[in-house]
Amino acid sequence: MGWPGQVRRYVFVDAGEALQACAAHIREPGIYLKAAVAPATLRQVLPAAWQVEEPRFLMYGPGPLSSPGPLPAGYAVAHTTEHGAQVLHLLDVATGQPAATGRVVLHQGCAVFDRIETMQAYRRRGLGTIVMGRLDALAEAAGASERLLVATEAGRALYQRLGWQVVAPYATAVLPTAPARVGAEPGRG
Fold first, then answer.
1. Superfamily the domain 62-162 falls into
2. 137, 149 in Cβ contact below 8 A?
3. What SS3 class is residue 180?
């Protein structure tokens, strides 16, 4: 996955037998189960040790989006590839720090947008819209005819303003990292 705390993700269309069989074999933290179901549905089929995260939404994009417009003064774009994803960072030129970021994975005509984030100090400036527009331009150039993403409650409003539609609820579960025992010595757990 290339993200701290995330070893692997398994994605399912429902919380049926395949997801449940997968969960039965997972013993280590950092492996995520994801499905296009409500969190309560996922909670019902998993053992109590699994932590179900906040509700999310599977969304379908209209594509292509309108042009993101010019980059505001004081920002630069950095475009890289990480783990097969096209990664875009809008950088604050004054600090060199990321102001907003996002990824898109392109596969067989489908563009999956992921980890779209505007850092707290840069919110409400339209940077998320710029990131989405520029990622969508990459998807369009690659010939993607289908656009998907999973949104948090907070992100859903931005995507709906851009024309995206909720297709289904979406839930994520993970085995949490066991807290360290007080007084335990390393290697003597």
1. Gcn5-related N-acetyltransferase (GNAT) (3.40.630.30)
2. no
3. coil
